[in-house]
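TA notes, week 10

Several of you asked for a full example with nothing omitted. So below is the full record: structure tokens for the whole chain, then the designed sequence directly under it. When grading your own attempts, check the secondary structure regions first.
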């Protein structure tokens, strides 16, 4: 059973691993439905996340007479880890415990952990700095970058905190842990798709074919130390800034994340390795040839009625016909592959631009007229 804000990538990975997924998420988009044995919508929204009230009832309803071998959760639980405890009282949770989530997703606890392990981590503050220049404001337990803003923009949410801005490139390390050891799967470079309200909104990622041997070794040591201290298990990701002042750990995502699509493999399905690691068995590392990139295509304008269209290959997370979209909503995920990371990144960004022509303000999509084939 899969529970997440969006369960499509996990459902696809489950099929690759020879599993039959039951999916509970906020969207039940057409892709998810095609992968799922059964699917059901969870209470909540993108803005508020998954709601605790009604969650267990929906999961029990989804399970029906079946006995799922495990529940794998995706995004949506970091802000309310108590929900993981609730699920664990009914099903076997193949993932990190609520205790581990709190250890790595609480900003103050992560900062203290990094200090104790001598891992560079940007300065944080729960209080608004006197001088806001060079500070970001974030939401504790947030995901996807939409919750990150410039501190000068103001934010009075009670669960917000401030973090020093660090210049450099965003690099993410996908790894698999067994509670004691951590093994690197690979590295990706991420970029943002800024909007007026979300300057650090997640744009996409590309799997890197090469990365500094020195940095790989250093990150590997840090992840082993973090795993031994927190008990991390399964597929996780750690986000870093690689800049002029060196490497800085920004955050840890204690669950399969946004880069699963670009790392999963038919030869070594990562969800199968995730289950093995959670159960204490050895996990294999896939081998890769070439690079894969993924990117989110957003609409900059409202779409009153989303039309039925024929989606091209190498797209996913399709909006169903009849959807009502606000400006900034995701329309689909786009993929590209190439021999090098730079070429794959360039190709996926070009495909996003080409597809965006179909939801410009002046296009028929913006007025609800019938749509055509996207090519």
């Amino acid at each position: 059973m899969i529970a997440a804000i969006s369960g499509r990538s996990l459902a696809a990975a489950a099929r690759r691993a020879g599993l039959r997924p039951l999916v509970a998420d906020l969207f039940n988009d057409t892709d998810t439905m095609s992968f799922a044995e059964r699917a059901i919508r969870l209470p909540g929204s993108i803005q508020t996340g998954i709601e605790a009230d009604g969650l267990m009832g929906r999961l029990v309803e989804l399970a029906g007479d079946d006995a799922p071998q495990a529940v794998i959760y995706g995004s949506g639980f970091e802000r309310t880890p108590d929900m993981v405890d609730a699920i664990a009282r009914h099903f076997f949770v193949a993932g990190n415990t609520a205790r581990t989530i709190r250890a790595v997703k609480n900003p103050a606890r992560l900062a203290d952990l990094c200090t104790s392990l001598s891992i560079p981590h940007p300065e944080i503050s729960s209080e608004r700095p006197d001088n806001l220049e060079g500070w970001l404001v974030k939401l504790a337990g947030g995901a996807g970058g939409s919750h990150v803003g410039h501190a000068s923009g103001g934010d009075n949410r009670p669960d917000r905190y401030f973090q020093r801005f660090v210049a450099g490139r965003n690099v993410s390390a996908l790894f698999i842990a067994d509670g004691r050891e951590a093994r690197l799967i690979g590295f990706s470079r991420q970029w943002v798709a800024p909007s007026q309200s979300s300057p650090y909104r997640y744009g996409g990622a590309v799997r890197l074919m090469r990365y500094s041997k020195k940095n790989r070794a250093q990150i590997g040591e840090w992840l082993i130390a973090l795993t031994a201290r927190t008990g991390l298990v399964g597929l996780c990701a750690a986000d870093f800034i690689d800049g002029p002042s060196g490497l800085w750990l920004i955050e840890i995502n204690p669950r399969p994340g946004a880069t699963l699509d670009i790392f999963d493999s038919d030869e070594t399905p990562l969800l199968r390795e995730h289950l093995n690691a959670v159960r204490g068995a050895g996990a294999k590392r896939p081998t890769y040839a070439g690079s894969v990139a993924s990117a989110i295509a957003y609409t900059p304008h409202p779409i009153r009625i989303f039309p039925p269209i024929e989606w091209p290959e190498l797209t996913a997370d399709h909006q169903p016909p009849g959807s009502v979209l606000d400006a900034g909503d995701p329309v689909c995920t786009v993929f590209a592959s190439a021999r090098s990371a730079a070429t794959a990144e360039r190709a996926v960004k070009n495909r996003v631009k080409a597809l965006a022509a179909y939801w410009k303000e002046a296009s028929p999509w913006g007025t609800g007229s019938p749509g055509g084939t996207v090519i």
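The longest helix spans residues 213-230. Use that as a sanity check on your answer.
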